[in-house]
## 1
Amino acid sequence: MVEGGHFERKDYESGVQTQDGMELRVWLRLLTCTNLLDTEVRTRLKQTADTTLPRFDILAQLERHVGPMSMGELSKRLMVSNGNVTGLIDRLAGEGLVDRKPSPNDRRVQMVSLTKKGAKSFSNIAENHRTWVGDMMADLSPDEMNGLYELLARLKASILAAEDKNSLEAAE
Amino acid sequence: MVEGGHFERKDYESGVQTQDGMELRVWLRLLTCTNLLDTEVRTRLKQTADTTLPRFDILAQLERHVGPMSMGELSKRLMVSNGNVTGLIDRLAGEGLVDRKPSPNDRRVQMVSLTKKGAKSFSNIAENHRTWVGDMMADLSPDEMNGLYELLARLKASILAAEDKNSLEAAE
DNA sequence: ACTAATTGTTTTAAGCTTAAAACATTGTCT
DNA sequence: AGACAATGTTTTAAGCTTAAAACAATTAGT
């Protein structure tokens, strides 16, 4: 999109002013890293397997679950809306990667499972996925990886604490 | 969505197996943190200002630029497609937050600028935005913030190096 | 000046996403 | 059993996003 090689993707940092606080700078750098990785993964999924990340996420959930899974459970595990799952499963079923059939116990429920084709497709893609992510982080030392891992845990805890505090205030 | 308070949002970590490599674990934790922050910001933008993050990003770009900006320049700075900007500006113009008029020099070009209403709206939202992000990171010490900032810089460099290497291979 | 290529924008088609409404089925209560 | 609440899924309406095609206007080359 832009010439030069290093700014084809979202890079929110380019707009940060020096007077911005450290929090905004960390947030924008976090966003930049996530977008770079995310975009790269999506691009390679498209190029090498002609699929998308949401489809891949569904196959991954089905693969690690023993036996078929209901639409609702898929929706909970992926943390997306029910309607979203309906659409994705429609397309995956159309491509023959998953199988959807009504539950014999409860006629409201649709049970979904991987087809053989779906399982095979997933295992190929998952292998690639692991390699891609590894390559992108190849320049970080084990110490750096551990440090990042721990700091992200601290950040996650801080965010959740802030949300809890906020929801308590809202409940008053 | 799920009871318990800590897993209402995307949390890819819940599915990671112990045999997964460190790279995948870091990636999923990165994704979790970004999604938590991103979702929170979007939710609050919706609740407090009835707007969205893409709209906010456009107002921010227009605010820091002196004078009107073309559609193409906006598209480059936000790192999104031209068509995307067209749609967003359509809606922002409909809400009276931005002004769009043809350039006098080049009749292909549309020049966009903030209206008074848009500038006022942006400054209110930006103030809140800074506070939200600060609150979410409140539990991290200055040292931790600096450490995270530096490690993310290392990660960004590693990703870009991997992309460059990959595109060089593709060009052979 | 005519033709070509280039540049700037919009339109189109497809997919992802959500919230809210609509439907279908099951469970509960009397 | 009948009414009503709760649960599981799909549909609908709206917005974000992209790639590719279509349009419009400018620039370059002859």
## 2
Amino acid sequence: MCHVKYRGKAQSSPQQQQRAQSSSGWGWGVGKHQHESIISPSAVSKSKCPLRSWGGNLECWMFFSQLYPTNNDRPMCCAAARGVGSWLSRSQQKLREEGRKPSGHADKEVMAATVLTSLSTSPLVLNPSSAPPVPEPGSRAWKDVLSNSYSSSTSGNWSWDTSDQSVPSTPSPPLSNDANKNFPLLTPGDDVNEDVPESTHFMFEDPIPRKRKNSMKVMFKCLWKNCEKVLSTSSGIQRHVRTVHLGRNTDSDYSDGEEDFYYSEIEINMDSLTEGLSSLTPTSPTTCGPPPVFPPPLTAVPHSERINMNSSHCPTPTLLSQSAPSTLCHIRTDHAYQATAPVRIPLGHELAGLGNGNGTRPGHGTGNGISVSWQSPHVLFKGVLGSVIPVRTVSIGEKRQPAAITHSTVIKNHALITPAPKSAPGTRKPRGEAKKCRKVYGMEKRDMWCTACRWKKACQRFTD
DNA sequence: ACTGCCGGGCA
DNA sequence: TGCCCGGCAGT
């Protein structure tokens, strides 16, 4: 199962971080002391682990250098963690059902679950809007969760180095006295389905139906590639996935929950639909372009993702609908590891990347640095298309969804997001590469320039 | 800072 | 129309 391995002190220099990120495996860390954890690809049931969406071979990187320095950073991690936690919780349950106590690798798996689910259940994520910055306790409590739970139960491979005081404190969620309730631990033997705070219940079970306005219609959309089946019930969509895509027996009630990854819950604002968004149909539920393509099994999308049709969640719907034909807008996702855009973490906030699964540095590339943002009811996502800060870039799912962010998309985003130049763009002639009179003759021989050059016009002698 | 050149003013 | 130059944008 999951081999959680401490691989030594983390890389403090960018070069070291770079080297580390270019290796395989996945890991996480705190502050300057990053710890790597490796999930053995061969040992993990790929068909169950949501991490497969990061590359199928589970070679993905998570570096949480400063845990959740900002609200904006958290959902990525949390979402991923939540997916893992859900999966691991199932694994636990299966172990119990089989009458076995998790131990050894399984124990480490549970530890991983604790780490990840703790991430995912942070109160800030659950309710970031009510989270004024309070120094320190967030990460500390997080570490406490870990140390209290597993510092003594692991075989020395695992540790949290909390001694490093150089890690700057960052805004953290307010933790009430019962903060631990918001950090449900997956400890061996616990029944993950019992006494789970309601706020975290949705992690492990089907989403609790939330109070919605009457105008919000919840539908369930199949995310299997080229399948846009939309059904009104989760059971229906599960049955659809199970029978149509997973090839399982219709009559069998057996379900291991894998169907969850292949559909998403979408909210359709009936008011908006009737007020002029009639072009939006349940089969194309986002206003941001075509639905994301999730080629299974590499791209498993847990069901708790919700694509929100309510345009009020998108601050600039027109712009985003044109510029981000993916899941950038209107998607309220609890499993953002399927997000399509690299996310630039604000400077000073060392949440480094979730790797792209092939061992390359996440986000290394175009340097366009186009900032985008999208909002969910839980959190405002901010990111960058064409990341520019490799170490501080989260590049999630880009390998899995290469079509989501295309070059043309980036161009379009750039044109749409960046302020329009004062003069009309495109009218200006591209700068020629040929040497001009000024270069050839120099200022001293200005009289030898062509007339145009002398007049500061486009050179007529050395044209391109 | 340097370079190319657009847009506009002036005679 | 010829000449010149401010200023923008790319390198």
